[in-house]
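During the reporting period the student researcher (J.K.) took over the structure-prediction task from the postdoctoral fellow and processed the backlog of single-chain submissions. One of the processed entries is reproduced below for the supervisory committee.
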Amino acid sequence: MSNEKVRIIFLYKNYFTDFYEKQKKKVKEKIIWTLRLVETLKQVPEDYLKHIEGTNGLYEIRVRLGSDIFRIFCFFDKGKLVVLANGFQKKTQKTPKSEIDKALKIMEEYENEKEVKIT
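J.K. obtained the following structure tokens:
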């Protein structure tokens, strides 16, 4: 895996950091490893980055450590910038709608703030 970055990970406010700080060391290491994949692979396999159906540009970064599954929502800005939103530990087959709604709100908040800065 080359260290050449194809994308840039951007931490928007404390949404991702709050989730990350609560994780055990091994989980943190796996999250960082997965984020590096997202940054450096031209084609990221769906095992690690997948579009959320029924949304306009919301993705989930998928992290698995043993039987534990974690999801970090993200979206793209200008193609190469990956903006991280909220993360959570997945305990059910389906991603909870409340988590998706939260990520969509973060995405909207980001877009609104960006528009304010431009004008």
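The committee noted the following: Helices lie at 15-21, 25-40, 97-118.
J.K. will present the remaining backlog at the next meeting.
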